[in-house]
Amino acid sequence: MNTYARLPVAFISGKGAYLQDADGKEYLDGLTGLAVVGVGHANPAVAAAVAEQAYTLTHTSNLYEIPLQTRLADRLCELSGMNKVFFGNSGAEANEAAIKLARLKGNNQGIKKPCVLVVDGSFHGRTMATLTATGNRKVHAGFEPLLSGFVRAPYNDIDAVQQIADNNSDVVALLVEPVLGEGGIVIPDPAYLSALRRICDDHGWLMMLDEVQSGNGRTGRFFAYQHTDCVPDVVTTAKGLGNGMPIGACLARGEAAELFVPGNHGSTFGGNPMACAAANAVLDEIAANNLCERATQLGERILTNLREGLTGDNRVKEIRGLGLMLAVEFHDDVSHLVQAGLEAGVLINVTQGNILRLLPPLTLTDAEADELARRVLSLV
Question: Within this chain, do residues 226 and 366 fall inside the same structural domain, yes or no?
Answer without folding.
Answer: no
